[in-house]
Each structure stands twice: as structure tokens, then as C-alpha cells.
Amino acid sequence: DAGVIxxxxxxxxxxxQEVTLRCKPISGHDYLFWYRQTMMRGLxxxxxxxxxxxxxxxxxxxxxxxxxxxxxxxxxxKIQPSEPRDSAVYFCASRYRANYGYTFGSxxxxxxx
Amino acid sequence: GDSVTQMEGPVTLSEExxxxxxxxYTATGYPSLFWYVQYPGEGLQLLLKATKxxxxxxxxxxxxxxxxxxTSFHLEKGSVQVSDSAVYFCALSDLESSASKIIFGSxxxxxxxP
Lengths: 113, 114
Prior knowledge:
Largest sheet of chain A: 7 strands, mixed
Radius of gyration of chain B: 14 Å
Number of strands of chain B: 12
Helix content of chain A: under 10%
Order of helices and strands of chain B: EEEEEEEEEEHEE
Helix content of chain B: under 10%
Strand content of chain A: over 45%
Largest interface: A-B, 22 and 21 residues
Shape of chain A: globular
Number of strands of chain A: 11
Structural class of chain A: mainly beta
Oligomer: heterodimer
Structural class of chain B: mainly beta
Number of helices of chain B: 1
Shape of chain B: globular
């Protein structure tokens, strides 16, 4: 099992550009979560999906952020336009059933200059 | 709503010292409890978990016991190593109130001196 796979590992972009982060969950996991981690705010849940359907997006900061899960093996988090305050590490995690622990990916470190 | 409170760091110990990281929780229902560890440059990894009162989770020499009467889940290790230096997160999952989300504490940074 390759675990949760995120790409890219690092992304540096200029303010105003579109950024797309990608995640491949563990096969068979039916929940997928996107988190953001910063020193100031710690871990923040942005959005999560169950069986590819968005369940709770109340953590998405604003309309510049969007997430999709077109199938069980792929999800994207898009920021358009990006701003310096979006700089953070973005984690994807997947989960098998509601009462199990998460498996996290290695994260994407985003720097917006 | 549900919440997790853990001791603030950083915590600095010498190698072979005894470790305790305190964690208390507030939950509407009957949550499952977790400890996650994050090593530098990596994602969080599940360290141990407990799903009911008096359960003891253990892994890699770490232990934590689910105490319903004190709503606590303190992490302990008898003899820490330099390789245990990381950030530790206490967390809960409460199907009644939080659906499928895991609620994380703010994390405790642990540094072990050789």
C-alpha cells in the first residue's frame, strides 16, 4: 500500500496565480479530508468528502478555494487567485469508515510570493 | 462543541527521561481518542488509539489510557529517545456530534536532548 499520495511536495507561485494541489487516497477508503497547517493557526480542516461527495466545506476560507473529488482515487484543491496568506502546508488524509483513524499524506508546502 | 486541550510546548527532556503529555477533551457523545505524531517535514501518523473507557492504547513504548471520569487521555513513555523528538497531537472522533471529522488539539512539540 503506497499510502496517501500528494503532489507536488513543494510549490512556489506568484500572487494572483492559480494553484492546484492533488491527492490520491488509499484504495478502499471512503472519506477524504483536506487540512491546512500553519504556525499561527495549527491544523485547520478545510473540507471533507464521503464517497466522493462533499459533506462539510465550512472550513474553506473563501471563494478563492475550491475542492473536487471526481472519483474515488483522486481529489484536487484549487486556489484561484492565490495570495501570500495562503502560504502553508496542505495535507490530504483518507479514512476507512467513520470510526477509524486517518492516514495522512506527506503534504504540499505552498509558498505564495 | 467537541474540543481537545493539550499541554502547551515546547517540552524539552533528556534522553531516558519519563514523558507525560497531558490531554483532556470535551465531547457530547462517546468519542474515540487518538494520539498522532508528526516528525519534521512529514504528515501526521497515527501513534495509538482507544475506543472505550479504560482502554489502553500503546505503540512504540508510548501508552495512553482512556479515562472517562476525568475526560483525559494522557500520553506517557517511560524512557524517551532522541528519535522521539516530534510534535504530538491529541485528537478525538465523536460520531454523535462531529460526524466523521477528527478534532485535533493544538499539538505539543517535544525535544529530546542526547
